[in-house]
């Protein structure tokens, strides 16, 4: 089931067609069709166990696709459609190549180093992408912190001493410091109070507008995610049951709720 959405004229940063993904050759995600364009925020919604994180891990290169086609940032990562060709690399090679091309993932556990400060996280992330000078790196950090003003006075504080919301802001800021073309955020709301999530999700929208990156957010908080995304897809038991323009999906709560609750 598809709800028509307003088209984006920018180039796609992700194209998945008929993609099956899972573990040890057993599909968890089946027949995934998903496109994300530059500067566009797409929400992937669904209950626990729906296959959302498996989708992110496959796009990031941490899991190999089982079948179908996957193009990430212009590079064919997997293609069996018609030509029977598969691009074979080990997971570290896949992940490294995609990171170098501009993919950045914020995992659900945030992946921070408790003993490193806010500034150190941003400097470390920047150094992974290119050999910019110290002054350019400092300017980039300032630009990133402009998007997250609550972090600015905490530059020298260790990540382990930050609140949950501050840690999530740092995790997103660190990802943006790599100047990604495709940013993926897994379960931003995990362990956070709804009021904190309401403040964080719009920051992702602002980041997409400021950087031009395509953004894929995985969320269980349906209405919050719809409020900040351009398009959304609902996944249930490894299959996308409905996708389309977020505003239209929000208005069709009957379709949205039946697709989402179909997980139970």
UniProtKB/TrEMBL annotation:
<dbReference type="InterPro" id="IPR017871">
    <property type="entry name" value="ABC_transporter-like_CS"/>
</dbReference>
<dbReference type="GO" id="GO:0015658">
    <property type="term" value="F:branched-chain amino acid transmembrane transporter activity"/>
</dbReference>
<comment type="similarity">
    <text>Belongs to the ABC transporter superfamily.</text>
</comment>
<dbReference type="Pfam" id="PF00005">
    <property type="entry name" value="ABC_tran"/>
</dbReference>
<feature type="domain" description="ABC transporter">
    <location>
        <begin position="14"/>
        <end position="262"/>
    </location>
</feature>
<keyword id="KW-0547">Nucleotide-binding</keyword>
<dbReference type="InterPro" id="IPR003593">
    <property type="entry name" value="AAA+_ATPase"/>
</dbReference>
<dbReference type="GO" id="GO:0016887">
    <property type="term" value="F:ATP hydrolysis activity"/>
</dbReference>
<dbReference type="GO" id="GO:0005524">
    <property type="term" value="F:ATP binding"/>
</dbReference>
<protein>
    <submittedName>
        <fullName>Unannotated protein</fullName>
    </submittedName>
</protein>
<keyword id="KW-0813">Transport</keyword>
<dbReference type="InterPro" id="IPR052156">
    <property type="entry name" value="BCAA_Transport_ATP-bd_LivF"/>
</dbReference>
<keyword id="KW-0029">Amino-acid transport</keyword>
<dbReference type="InterPro" id="IPR003439">
    <property type="entry name" value="ABC_transporter-like_ATP-bd"/>
</dbReference>
<dbReference type="InterPro" id="IPR027417">
    <property type="entry name" value="P-loop_NTPase"/>
</dbReference>
<keyword id="KW-0067">ATP-binding</keyword>
<dbReference type="GO" id="GO:0015807">
    <property type="term" value="P:L-amino acid transport"/>
</dbReference>
């Amino acid at each position: 089931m598809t709800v028509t959405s307003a088209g984006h004229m920018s180039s796609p940063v992700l194209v998945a067609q008929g993609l099956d993904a899972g573990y040890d050759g057993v599909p968890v995600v089946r027949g995934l069709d998903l496109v994300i364009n530059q500067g566009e925020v797409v929400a992937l919604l669904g209950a626990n166990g729906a296959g959302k994180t498996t989708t992110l891990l496959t796009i990031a290169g941490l899991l190999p696709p089982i079948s179908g086609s996957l193009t990430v940032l212009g590079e064919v990562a997997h293609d069996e459609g018609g030509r029977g060709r598969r691009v074979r690399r080990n997971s570290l090679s896949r992940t490294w190549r995609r990171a170098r091309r501009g993919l950045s993932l914020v995992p659900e556990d945030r992946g921070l180093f408790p003993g490193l400060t806010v500034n150190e996280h941003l400097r470390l992330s920047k150094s992974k992408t290119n050999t910019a000078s110290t002054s350019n790196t400092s300017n980039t950090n300032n630009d990133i912190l402009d998007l997250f003003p609550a972090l600015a006075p905490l530059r020298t504080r260790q990540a382990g001493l930050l609140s949950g919301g501050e840690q999530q802001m740092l995790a997103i800021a660190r990802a943006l410091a790599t100047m990604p073309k495709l940013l993926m955020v897994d379960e931003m709301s995990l362990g956070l109070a709804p009021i904190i999530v309401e403040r964080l999700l719009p920051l992702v929208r602002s980041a997409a507008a400021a950087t031009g990156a395509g953004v894929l957010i995985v969320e269980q908080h349906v209405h919050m995610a719809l409020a900040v995304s351009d398009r959304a897809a609902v996944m249930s038991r490894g299959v996308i049951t409905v996708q389309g323009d977020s505003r239209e999906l929000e208005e069709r709560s009957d379709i949205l709720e039946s697709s989402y609750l179909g997980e139970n």
